[in-house]
Structure formats: C-alpha cells, structure tokens
Amino acid sequence: MNTLVPMSRFLPKAKKEKFAVGQFNVITLEFADIVATVAEEENAPVIFGAGEMSIKYMGLDYCVAVAKLAASKVSVPVALHLDHGSSFEVAMKCIQAGFSSVMFDGSRYPLEENIRLTKQVVAAAHAVGVSVEAELGSIGGTEDDHTVDEADAALVKPEEAIYFWNETKVDAMAIAVGSAHGMYKREPNIRTDIIEKVANAIDVSVVLHGGSGIPDDAIRNSIAAGIGKINVNTENLVAYTAAVRKFIASNDTETDPRKYQGPAREAMKDVIRSKIRLFGSNNKA
C-alpha cells in the first residue's frame, strides 16, 4: 500500500533532471481521486495541496484520511502538503495529523523574522521526516483566504533568497518572480533571470506559485531556469465548474450529483494531464 511521502522524496530528482512536479489543490474526495488517478496514468509524482481554508472546509482529519486513501490506490509518490501555512502552530497541527509536507509562509515578515520562524518549522518537521517549503517575496492574488494585493506584490531579491536558503535549509523555496494566484488579467512577465540566479545557488527546487494561466512557453522557460515545483489550482476549479454549469444548463431537472460530476471529473482530468506533461513529470515517478 502506498503511503504519503515528503516532497524531498522526489524534488531532488526534479531539480537534477530539469522537470517540475505539479501541486494540485484538493478540496474534496473527488479532487483527490482525480489528481491521484491522472498521476498514476501518467506515472508522475504528485503533490496534494491543502490550504488552511480547504482544511477548515473539509476538516483536518477528513483531509488527511482522503489523501491517504487516494494515495493508497496508486503506486506513484504522493505528498500531502500544507499550502501557505500561516504559523508554526498550524504547521505542527498538520504534521501531527499526518501531512507529509508543510509550507510556512512568512513572506509578510521582515527577512530575519521570516528566517527565525522558518527555522523553527524546519527543525520540528525534519525531526519527523516531513519536508518544508518557505516563501520569500510577495506573490499577488488570492489562494484560499491568503490574499496579496497586486500593488503590494514584490519580486524577490536573488541575494536575499540565497541567504534565506543557506540559513534555513528548507526543502523547497517559493520566490516571487512575477506570477500570481488566480487567473491573469494580462500575460505575466515571469523573471527567469531571477529563477536561474537562485536555482543555481541553492541545492533544492525553486517553486512557482500561481501556475494557472501562464503560457506554456513561459512554463517551459521557467523549468529550464530551475523551477522544480509548480502550483495549479484555479484552472482546475474553472474547468470543473464550467463542466458542471454546461451539464446543468442542458439537464435542468437533473438532481443526481453523480451525473454532473462525471463530466466535471473528465474536464479536470484533462487539465491535470496537460499540466503534468507540460511540466515534464510524466514517467518520472
């Protein structure tokens, strides 16, 4: 039976072989099953992302149980990752419940305070074999209940990101390079020069948040520059919801959720499959 694994199980391979592992947020049993199913079909390592709002919606125990059940049905490596954890306490609750990976997002703090708090999470998580992601710079947009106004978004300074990693030794480093959570109103300018400077100077994968809606060429260039993990959520939500709306519009008397979730599942599968192949993580499990 497959179990949840830390991201450190597969991100080093992604960095070495120049591909990226997809993080796809799971907010229901359906979502977890869809992500795991496609990952198995594509023979790709995969990350279940769960932010604090999603955990509150599902319930922490249900979230872990759903992830473990989905992972147990496939042979590929699956991590359950806390997305944008706001505090040491939240990260510890998730670890105690069974998460195999956590993100502590201290990007709102001054650099040294972010480092101090991140080191606390790293020490506790690594002691029990759990991987840690951190963030530097401000990534715009909204992810669950985490919102950064576009005007407040700030690109990371490469030298600060390198210093941050050397101080914390996190397993994955999310940096602000021009992406944003949610769908884009205009084409983003992803700073591959910043990605390359940071990726070449640290031993772990650089993470790109806000992967929904970034043009394919920009994704490929980002991976070539050193991105090893890419987060996708909004595109899945858009595809799933559009399929439900289309079905109901044509079947307005239907009341069985299984009927409209069928096409919704297929629509979301198509998005995940295309992302896995774009990221180059297929056949990398």
Strand segment tally: 10
Net shape:
globular
Describe the main β-sheet briefly.
8 strands, parallel, barrel
* Content-based structural category: alpha/beta
What's the helix count?
11
What value does the Rg take, in angstroms? 18 Å
Overall mean confidence score, pLDDT: 92
Arrangement of strands in the largest sheet = 1-2-3-4-5-8-9-10
String of helices and strands: HEHEHHEHEHEEEHEHEHEHH
pLDDT < 50 runs, ≥5 residues: 146-152
Helix content: 40-55%
Distance between the termini: 16 Å
Q: Hey, roughly how much beta strand do the residues contain?
A: 15-25%
Describe this structure in words.
By secondary structure, the protein is α/β, with parallel strands linked by helices. It contains 11 helices and 10 strands. It has helices spanning 11-17, 29-42, 52-58, 60-72, 88-97, 111-126, 158-168, 192-199, 216-225, 234-250, 257-279, and strands spanning 21-25, 46-51, 78-85, 101-104, 131-136, 141-143, 146-148, 172-175, 205-208, 227-232. Strands 1-2-3-4-5-8-9-10 form an 8-stranded parallel β-barrel, surrounded by 11 helices. The protein has a two-stranded antiparallel ribbon with strand order 6-7. Helix 3 packs across helix 4. The longest helix has 23 residues, at 257-279. The chain is globular, with a radius of gyration of 18 Å.
